[in-house]
Specification:
The chain has helices at residues 2-19, 25-55, 60-85, 90-107, 109-124, 164-169, 195-208, 242-263; strands at 132-135, 138-145, 149-154, 159-163, 173-174, 181-189, 219-225, 230-238. By secondary structure, it is α+β, with helices and mostly antiparallel strands.
Length: 280
């Protein structure tokens, strides 16, 4: 039924094209004027897009995408006007274009979904190029946001191409959305050691570690009474990038080890007690 409707509409339009074309000099002048108008409209819209993106602090990818959309609209309108000038039956043309559009949209629904999602990402900006995100089991830095998909460089140097529909519809964790990010380091001390002294030394280590911010204030919490140690959780804030987090956590671990060694505070190994019952 669908194919039959397409054939009937196409036959009607082809009849108009074959017998009703207006090929007079006046029509040629109007066609040329329409082409010039479509070109001018596209140029003007490009300037408006550049101005709007600049005023709103957008990026080049948003401007590029918007220019493509305005170009499609400008030249599509020009084509419709030209076909009208040439005498093509508007109703037949609309029928053919509508049915073709329906078929194309069904066949390319995933591409269209990714395209619209890409536009929404560029407009709403849940993340930008350079942000570090986690999505669909991957973690890395956004390197490019394109029409269909976006590129993520993982922290071990791999390139992951993620469809924009996934980025827009699924849960995305943006690790660099805010200026600070918290990290935790857990250290255990012996049950015979002074918890107050161990906590004070841990606070000193936090304050002396490069990269750990003073605001928000670092914290030392008694986290757990473990099987062989009392575990302290050291919480500090750094810049949100992963490299800053890892660097600060590594330096803090080193500092707390030195302080505990100097104070004679034990960082015990895990201990297991095994009771054996011997039967006579």
């Amino acid at each position: 039924m669908f194919v039959q409707h397409v054939q009937e509409a196409a036959g009607e339009a082809s009849g108009s094209l074959e017998f009703g074309l207006n090929l007079t000099p006046e029509a040629g002048i109007l066609v040329a004027a329409t082409l010039a108008g479509a070109w001018t409209l596209n140029k003007v819209s490009n300037r408006l897009v550049d101005r709007a993106v600049e005023e709103r602090g957008g990026d080049k990818h948003a401007a590029f995408t918007a220019k493509k959309v305005t170009a499609y609209i400008s030249y599509t309108l020009g084509l419709v006007v030209i076909l009208g000038i040439l005498g093509v039956n508007p109703s037949a043309l609309a029928s053919v274009l509508g049915l073709i559009g329906l078929g194309v949209s069904f066949a390319l629904r995933d591409v269209i979904s990714n395209f619209i999602s890409g536009l929404m990402i560029l407009v709403n900006k849940p993340f930008e190029i350079g942000d570090q995100i986690r999505v669909d089991g991957y973690e890395g830095t956004i390197k490019d946001i394109r029409i269909r998909a976006s590129d993520i460089k993982t922290f071990d140097g791999r390139k992951v191409i993620v469809p924009n529909s996934t980025l827009y519809n699924d849960i995305v964790v943006n690790d660099t959305a805010y200026a600070q990010r918290r990290f935790n380091v857990v250290v255990g001390v012996g049950y015979d050691d002074d918890i107050k002294e161990a906590s004070d030394l841990a606070e000193e280590a936090l304050e002396e570690t490069d990269g750990v911010l003073s605001v928000p204030s670092p914290q030392v919490l008694v986290d757990e009474l473990g099987g062989s140690s009392v575990n302290l959780k050291l919480r500090g804030w750094t810049k949100p990038e992963r490299a800053d987090q890892l660097r600060a956590a590594s330096k803090l671990t080193e500092n707390i080890k030195h302080k505990y060694d100097d104070a004679g505070i034990d960082i015990p190994y895990p201990i297991r007690t095994i009771n054996l019952n011997k039967e006579n």
